[in-house]
Amino acid sequence: MSAFDAPDLADVLAARRRIAPYLGPTPLYRYPALDVLAGTQVWVKHENHQPVGAFKVRGGVNLVRQLGADERQRGVIAASTGNHGQSVAYAASLFGVRAVVCAPEQANPVKVESMRALGAEVVLHGRDFDEAREHCEKLAAEHGYRYVHSGNEPALIAGVGTYTLEILEAQPDTEIIVVPVGGGSGAAGACVVAKAVRPSVQVIGVQSAAAPAAQRSWQARALLTGDNSTIAEGLATRTSFRLPQEILWDKLDDFVLVSDDALQGATRTMIEKTRNLVEPAGAAALAAVLSDPARFAGQKVAVVCSGGNISPAQLLALWA
Ligand SMILES: Cc1ncc(COP(=O)(O)O)c(C=O)c1O
Fold first, then answer.
1. Residues 85, 173 within the same domain
2. What is the C-alpha to C-alpha distance for residues 279 and 267, in angstroms, rounded to an integer?
């Protein structure tokens, strides 16, 4: 499979078998207080309950488990604001593979500490994700590491697609699935599964208006770059990636932007109403629902709470 071959439902089912010994299903809970606020039935898919606090780990375990002896021996490298890096570090630690992660200099310290505790070598480089990614690509070429791109990797998309299988099994009459988007692997996985299992299920992507490269690329059907000043580091990229975009161009129903104010408000709401730790990227799907309640009224909506790795400083700022 090349880096640009879209996975299908069979790949997601295979991924589920591959990751099952290492990662259990996550809960899908409904909270009456959220329903009242949203004016509809909202089901929260708790990817913040993953062992590294984010959905990405499904993809990391699926990918690293399939690496051949040569790639395992070379070690893996990834660029990340923290959750893809934790995913790769977690999976590498399971299979005894060396992991290097390049993260921006100002990366969330909770994520950096976790990656280091998982045994990864963390290289802090650059002002943002894209500068860290360029450095990572240079190190991969210099040292021969297996580069795990955060978007152009069919095994990552198939792996993260497994949460949508769980949503549709737990609540088969789900009508809309709302997914936070950075590079687009999560939304691409959701599309692959939903459109194969029940095409009437709408999949809606959400990005921050302060980092809209993926949303603009989806609208234009072209790989565009954009600004990035969002507080939600999980959604913070200036570029768009070919494989997830091609899947989204084909299958995604809609792609909306929310303001960073809405992201902060939804993060507070998620913490208060679900009593869960949630990072701003993890509250983006709820932000989309609360920003446009009329659109979702009367529908059964699953919001993907993609991560919970909020730092103490970010938490304090929410209630400052
Ligand atoms: C918590 C969280 N939500 C959403 C995303 C966006 O995921 P993707 O890059 O697959 O679109 C990320 C990416 O790291 C993330 O960490």
1. no
2. 7
Q: Closest Cα partner for 33 from 286, 319, 320?
A: 286
Nearest CA among 256, 260, 281 for reference residue 270: 281
Instruction: Name the closest-CA residue to atom 14, ligand 1.
Output: 234
Q: Determine the atom of ligand 1 nearest the C-alpha atom of 185.
A: 10
Tell which one of 44, 52, 55 to mutate to probe ligand 1, the residue whose CB is within 8 A of the most ligand atoms.
55
The amino acid sitting at 314 is: Q
CATH code at 177?
3.40.50.1100
Strand (E) or helix (H) holding 182: none
Are residues 26 and 119 both part of a single domain? no
CA angle 306–308–309, rounded 5-degree value: 120
Summarised one tens digit per residue, pLDDT across range 277-307 is 999 999 999 999 999 999 999 999 999 999 9
* Nearest atom in ligand 1 to 179's CA: 4
Q: What global pTM score does this model have? A: 0.98
* Domain that residue 264 falls in: 9-54+155-318
Residue written as token pair 């899947």: 247
